[in-house]
Structure formats: C-alpha cells, structure tokens
Amino acid sequence: MKSIRRTAAVLAAAMTLGGCADEAQIKTAAEMYEEAQVFEGIADYAAAVTAYNELQATYPHGNYAQQAILNLAHLHYQEGKYDEALAAINQFIEEYPAHRHLDYARYLRGLVLLREKPDVIDKLLFEDFTNHSRTAAVEAYEAFLELAEKHPLSRFTPSAAAKAADIINALSLDELRTALHYLRIGAYSGALRRASDVTQKYPSNRYNEIALAIIVASLAEIQSPAPLQDAVAALEANFPDTTLSAPAQQGALALLDSLGEETVRGDLFTQLLE
C-alpha cells in the first residue's frame, strides 16, 4: 500500500512539474512583440508577419495587439503587398479610432493607395497613371487631406499636405496633356472640356494658367465672342503677368507655338475618333 501511495505521489509531482514547465514556456504579449520586432529589425519580414499574427491570436486585446495590426500594415507595405496592407490599415482605423498612432495609419493609407515605394517616399513623380489608378490617386489625396484636417499638429501632416498637392498637380497634368492633344488635332470642344476640368476640379493646381489659355484658344477657334471675353478676363485677372493671353486669342496654332508644342494637326479620321 505504501508503495502504491509513493508511486502516486511521484506521478502527481511529475505532472505538476510538467505543468509548470509548460506554463513557463508561454510567452507574454510583450515578449512576443519583442520577438516580432527583432525579426522586423533584421528584415526577416515573413517571420515578423508570422510573429505578429501569433501575437494577435494569443493576445487579441490590449496595446500590443493593436500595435501589431499597424506594424503588419507597414510590413505588407514594405513587401509591396498593398492589398494586405490596406486591409490591415482599414481594420486599425475602424477598430481603434482614438489610437495615438491614428495619424500614422492615415498617412500610411495614402502611401499604400499610391503604390509608392518606400525608397522613393519623397519623390511622387507619376506623370501618367500606368501604375496608379486614377481612383486610387483621388482616394490617396482624400486620405492625406483627412490627415491634415484631423491631425493638424501631426509630424506627418507637412508631408501629407505636400503629397496631396503633388497628386492634384499630377491629375491636372494628365488632363492638360489631353486638352493639348485635342487642341493640336483641332478637336476644340474636347480641348475646352478638358481644360475646364483642370480649372474646376483642381482649382489649386500649378497648371491653371495654361488651362485657361487653352480655354481662350478653343473659344477663339469656335468663334464664341462673349464666352471668349470672359475667358480672357479670367486669364488676365488670375495671371496678370501672363504671356499666353495674346497668342491664345489668335487661336490654337499660335498658343501651341508659344508653348513649344507641336502644331501638326491630326487627320479627319483621328479627330472623329477623339
């Protein structure tokens, strides 16, 4: 009997010690977060993503879990996994609208929407939208604008404001090129429409002087006297030192020549297609 009791006691002790050993192996949220940070620091992004996901699964609530979502978004952004990054950012903004890093989340959202590479973060130079959806560019602009409006004192706000201006200029330039193309081929209604879009949709862009001059030249070609006078007045009032008013009033060829643009007209078939 004593032998049986002794054996049972030994087994119980072994089970207790084994349980303590298992519990000792369970990492705290802080330890899991630190481990993920180490992986991120050595650029082992796959391991870092796994570690952050495990942290969220083990400790779904608390500051570490919240920060893990934002860190995951940044990692996906670094890897060029923009859809995953956007999903994480949207989750973070929706679930933690009062988080102290909400300003960075909004800033990162704008960068992700632009599909902008981290190593050229300060060089937003897209002259066309081959790699940038126009809709995404507008959404990025709105994200940067929202940051500037809701977090005016954020350290990210100056950069966000500058990028918002760059987006407006890029969108305007895209429209302006089309307007110039229409002017070149003699599609004056199209040129007038596109140039008007530049001035109305993006009133603070840097290309308004040229856009207004295209409007003047188009109206001169269409021979619409009253609107032409109004357009000339608008051009000269907004840009008192402009050198484009006189050539624009002479018509498309004179304006294109003053801008250094080609003046070869398209054939009738091309004009009809445009």
From TrEMBL:
An example Gene Ontology CC term for this record: cell outer membrane
Protein's UniProt keywords contain Magnesium: no
Domain annotation Outer membrane lipoprotein BamD-like: ranges: 28-224
Transport recorded as keyword: no
TPR repeat positions: 66-99
Principal subcellular localization: membrane
Subcellular location: Cell outer membrane
GO terms, biological process: Gram-negative-bacterium-type cell outer membrane assembly; protein insertion into membrane
Signal peptide coordinates: 1-21
PROSITE patterns: PROKAR_LIPOPROTEIN (PS51257), TPR (PS50005)
HAMAP family listed in its UniProt record: OM_assembly_BamD
Oligomer status and interactors: Part of the Bam complex.
Function summary: Part of the outer membrane protein assembly complex, which is involved in assembly and insertion of beta-barrel proteins into the outer membrane.
Family: Belongs to the BamD family.
Name under which the protein is recorded: Outer membrane protein assembly factor BamD
Organism the protein comes from: Candidatus Amphirhobacter heronislandensis
